[in-house]
């Protein structure tokens, strides 16, 4: 089968479109004929070495997939050959014509979404959902600030917070204002004009999808007694957080589940959530998709489609 693979860590130029052995499903896994796979910052953070070296080389990137079950491994109950599924692999491998995925991290593809749209969902939407509704314990009527609102996680977070009854403040660059308001933001802060620590709005809950060395700045946009949930790694000084009585959560990366994917699928099929695709690339051009993701100026999600399959 054809796949995107790299043999050394580095920039997008290390990505090779090449023939690799087709994986076989172990017990509890599905072999999926991949129709689309989305790009997450984790893909290039692992590729570049920024996220450490826990994945052995050569390595096929790609966590999120949507496709068709080719074969169900022993004990992968609940799935049959030919079924359309979406979900997350256990350790990458999605930028390929076939990938294995734990059955416990797969569910029926949302019927209303194309494979490209469905592949955009798992990691980003699950992260936004868990951070806001579980870790952040969002309550109706609260003000929620989404920092990095135009990205993969952020654009789902805006919609999920709105549906949960929050007043949403989106933080992004000005060119993204109109579509983020359409998705549910009632206030908009252009961080290129007004730094987030000078936000005129104080949130009960802030979701930080930006992180970095300036994480602390977000504390000033949270009410005393409020919560800040980072999904990206950032610097949040415990002293500054304590002085402002803001509870800062940890960055969590729990595995996705069939149940979570099924709940998300129901939201998309009911029209309560939508996917915004920034761009779609054929598999052989995955390096362009990684380049675009790394540029950090996307709107929504970047997807890779398997052009060689009917
Ligand atoms: N914990 C987890 O399980 C988990 C899961 C998924 C992702 N993550 C992490 O969460 C972070 C976000 O992921 P993502 O997929 O949403 O990334 P993404 O789609 O690549 O985000 C790009 C967006 O960030 C915005 N942005 C860049 N600098 C900004 C700033 N200073 N202030 C506000 N917005 C800014 C850009 O919008 P503008 O053009 O408007 O600036 C762009 O739309 C990444 O670090 C990722 O690794 C963690």
From TrEMBL:
<feature type="domain" description="Enoyl reductase (ER)">
    <location>
        <begin position="10"/>
        <end position="304"/>
    </location>
</feature>
<dbReference type="GO" id="GO:0005737">
    <property type="term" value="C:cytoplasm"/>
</dbReference>
<dbReference type="GO" id="GO:0003723">
    <property type="term" value="F:RNA binding"/>
</dbReference>
<keyword id="KW-0963">Cytoplasm</keyword>
<dbReference type="InterPro" id="IPR020843">
    <property type="entry name" value="ER"/>
</dbReference>
<keyword id="KW-0694">RNA-binding</keyword>
<protein>
    <submittedName>
        <fullName>NADP-dependent oxidoreductase</fullName>
    </submittedName>
</protein>
<dbReference type="Pfam" id="PF13602">
    <property type="entry name" value="ADH_zinc_N_2"/>
</dbReference>
<dbReference type="InterPro" id="IPR036291">
    <property type="entry name" value="NAD(P)-bd_dom_sf"/>
</dbReference>
<dbReference type="Pfam" id="PF08240">
    <property type="entry name" value="ADH_N"/>
</dbReference>
<dbReference type="GO" id="GO:0008270">
    <property type="term" value="F:zinc ion binding"/>
</dbReference>
<dbReference type="InterPro" id="IPR013154">
    <property type="entry name" value="ADH-like_N"/>
</dbReference>
<dbReference type="InterPro" id="IPR002364">
    <property type="entry name" value="Quin_OxRdtase/zeta-crystal_CS"/>
</dbReference>
<dbReference type="GO" id="GO:0016491">
    <property type="term" value="F:oxidoreductase activity"/>
</dbReference>
<keyword id="KW-0521">NADP</keyword>
<dbReference type="InterPro" id="IPR011032">
    <property type="entry name" value="GroES-like_sf"/>
</dbReference>
<comment type="subunit">
    <text>Homotetramer.</text>
</comment>
<dbReference type="InterPro" id="IPR051603">
    <property type="entry name" value="Zinc-ADH_QOR/CCCR"/>
</dbReference>
């Amino acid at each position: 089968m054809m796949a995107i693979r790299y043999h050394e860590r580095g920039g997008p130029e290390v990505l090779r479109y090449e023939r690799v052995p087709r994986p076989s499903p172990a017990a509890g896994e599905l072999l999926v004929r991949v129709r689309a796979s989305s790009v997450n910052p984790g893909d290039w953070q692992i590729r570049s070495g920024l996220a450490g070296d826990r994945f052995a080389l050569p390595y096929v990137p790609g966590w999120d997939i949507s496709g068709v079950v080719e074969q169900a491994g022993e004990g992968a109950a609940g799935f049959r050959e030919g079924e359309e599924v979406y979900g997350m692999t256990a350790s990458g491998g999605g930028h390929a014509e076939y990938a294995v995925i734990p059955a416990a991290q797969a569910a029926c593809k949302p019927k209303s979404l194309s494979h490209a749209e469905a592949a955009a969902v798992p990691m980003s939407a699950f992260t936004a959902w868990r951070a806001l509704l579980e870790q952040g314990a969002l309550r109706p009527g609260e003000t929620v600030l989404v920092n990095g609102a135009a990205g993969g996680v952020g654009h789902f977070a805006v919609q999920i917070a709105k549906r949960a009854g929050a007043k949403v403040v989106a933080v992004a660059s000005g060119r993204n204002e109109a579509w983020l308001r359409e998705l549910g933001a009632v206030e908009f802060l252009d961080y290129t004009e007004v730094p987030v620590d000078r936000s005129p709005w104080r949130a009960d809950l802030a979701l930080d999808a930006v992180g970095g060395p300036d994480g602390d700045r977000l504390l000033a946009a949270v009410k005393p007694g409020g919560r800040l949930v980072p999904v990206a790694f950032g610097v949040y000084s415990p002293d500054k957080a304590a002085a402002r009585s803001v509870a800062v959560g940890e960055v969590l990366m729990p595995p996705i589940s069939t149940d979570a994917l099924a709940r998300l699928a129901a939201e998309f099929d009911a029209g309560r959530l939508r996917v915004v695709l920034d761009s779609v690339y054929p598999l052989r051009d995955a390096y362009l998709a990684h380049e675009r993701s790394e540029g950090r100026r996307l709107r929504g999600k970047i997807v890779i489609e398997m052009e060689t399959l009917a």
